[in-house]
Design a protein that fits this description.
By secondary structure, the chain is mainly α. It contains five helices and no strands. The model has no long low-confidence stretch (mean pLDDT 93).
Length: 125
């Protein structure tokens, strides 16, 4: 992957936009469904996996191309979130909600993999 200033700026711009999108969607889901379960983070991670799978299906892995750097490394990198997922799962676990924590872990992993595969499959067809 190239590390020129243009590449860094593309990733930074994409990351900023992705982070804002994640923030907006997570807040909207919390208002809509409440905050007892991290629905916003689950939706963000599943939709990000779907889009990433679709881009992979369409373009392969052109890691140094500007569009890929912006869209995948930047936008989807800032949009999806392992850190929020991890902290929210830990918070559920520590507050005695082991079942919800387990459901969050399982659904994030299974749904993320399924959505990436679905995106890739649809892009191939």
């Amino acid at each position: 992957m190239g590390h020129g200033i243009t590449s860094v700026l593309l990733v930074a711009l994409g990351g900023a936009l992705g982070g804002m999108g994640r923030f907006a969607i997570s807040n909207a889901m919390a208002r809509l469904l409440g905050s007892a379960f991290p629905w916003g983070t689950l939706l963000v991670n599943a939709s990000g996996a779907f889009i990433a799978g679709g881009l992979l299906g369409m373009y392969g892995v052109p890691t140094s191309q500007p569009a890929w750097l912006f869209a995948v490394a930047g936008l989807l990198g800032g949009y999806t979130t392992v850190s929020s997922f991890s902290l929210q799962t830990l918070e559920l676990w520590q507050s005695g909600q082991m079942f919800r924590a387990t459901i969050n872990m399982a659904s994030t992993l299974l749904l993320g993999g399924a959505m990436a595969a679905l995106g890739w499959t649809l892009a191939q067809g």
